[in-house]
């Protein structure tokens, strides 16, 4: 009980500390936010992607005498020609000297943790002169009450808390309850003996609850200490997209109080109820009295839960859109909780009913023995299966959250574009960018010449690509002919300056000359993903017909890759390694959203790992406990001549039946819950068909692992102590 409580409390402390880590990060970023006002300092902020990470630079310039405002983490702002950067940027500059162009000046210091969101933060203060700081504002002070760039959006954080609660806290309560009922049958016989020799009912319950509470408290202390050690290690290692300082992950007083008091309190409650039968009817315990069948009231919780989530699914099938409104934000979480509770409390009566039916038609001795035992005592099977059932149910919810976040964090097109100014790239870098893993093609683009004298002048874009590249990067394209200059036309897209056939546009070359291109009469009918470099009215020019030496100042280079998050991060990291000073525009993506998605994925992965640890631990504890409880029955069957193979098959069937029932129900209800969440979220994806095979594979893996783990728990050793004379 102490070791089980220690594991459970360590997981509980980890879940309760996650919001504290995020809050500490946001508090430090809010404290460094520059605020406009009147002072002797000008400032301007730049926030660009460096690879797949956001790079934040604050340029400051003194424009008068006196002391300058000071942000947290540094002693003073840098003067002109100086730069103060975060420790992570020091490592980047040492590994990639090309990146020094992003930080003009001499690095004179590093930012302390008080001025950084986390240990991987890319942040810099750069000193310059007022003449070089166009578009600057006057700096008043640093620090706001709330950060404008929170690591996780508040609405998303609520979803994250609910999901972690379902995949970690619900199995955790079950696990702690299982630990509090260890060796339930042998303990019940011992308590019944105390009751028979004169101890009162109240004192008998107190004995059991007191034992459980003391063991749980010892385990809680061990769990908190274990979590503190793990936090010190993980804070230095970090998670993908999420790093923190060790102090951020240390539990607060309220968290420690919940861990040290909540676990013993739960053990006390469970101890009171688990010993009630031994205290009230000690004779039936000592003489193996008939157990009461499980009540079906818990199964009724499935009716409103499945009714709500199934109703939303039916509305989607009928073509109606139930998204939006405040009702769904309350009904769906409530229905998910009711469904999860129904799976827990309804598993025992459903398993008992099914075992009775199977035992009545069974022709095999092992099947008949297993089903009759399950029919008599389905509660023991419930303790074995519940944690794993909730794990599969929570896995489906996690898939839904990831699908929804994936929809809102990036555009839904199957391709992703990255736009870079040609003036920021050398010929060697352009060649190297084609070798970045994940990049499918390059599309150079040039804009027609503009005198920049304030006059309004029509212009057109020139795209260098083949028909095959156009087809691979758009929804569809018809009428494209290789080897000819043609105009793109999308009937559903408006363009203020629609060039007409015969219009002439000048393009500037590197030596200052002008090359004239005429708009051809031929058009390509196409439909582009928006936004995209392939816009209506642009001219598609084959590489063989491109005028030579066009000016890079008027050109951009667009890289194209697949649109899955892993590929996007890989391509951005590749671009950052080759051209660290180039400004990259990941078309249709906000780099902060990509970083937030990485954080959420890491936290959900942590939740799933914790849920898996808890589920497996609950299974191991329950199976071992059931093996101890069944020693008397196994001894009796062995004396009657039962073979070892028969006993093992019985054990596997007793574990497998509730798991099959529970996992099947978890897959169905979990997928319906995931679908209802996606439907009410308003996204384009309502049915996660791709995630369904993964759920089946997980359930099958859980079932096979449980069956194999159950086999060694059967021992045919005949111990006279376990032979029941009655």
Key traits:
18 strands; 7-stranded mixed sheet; 9-stranded mixed sheet; 52% helix; 726 residues; alpha+beta; 20 helices; elongated
Walk me through what this model shows.
With 726 residues, the protein is α+β, with helices and mostly antiparallel strands. The chain has 20 helices and 18 strands. Strands 11-15-12-16-10-9-17-8-18 form a 9-stranded mixed sheet. A 7-stranded mixed sheet has the order 1-7-2-3-6-4-5. Strands 13-14 form a two-stranded antiparallel ribbon. The longest helix is centred in the last third of the chain and has 39 residues, at 591-629. The chain is elongated. The model has no long low-confidence stretch (mean pLDDT 77).
Low-confidence runs of at least 5 consecutive residues: none
Specify the biggest β-sheet: 9 strands, mixed
How does the helix and strand content classify structurally? alpha+beta
Strand content: 5-15%
Distance between the termini: 31 Å
Q: Kindly state the mean pLDDT as a whole number?
A: 77
Rg over C-alpha atoms, rounded to the nearest angstrom: 33 Å
By DSSP (H or I, 4+ residues per run), the number of helices equals 20
List the strand order in the largest sheet.
Answer: 11-15-12-16-10-9-17-8-18
The shape, in one word, is elongated
Number of strands: 18
Helix content: 40-55%
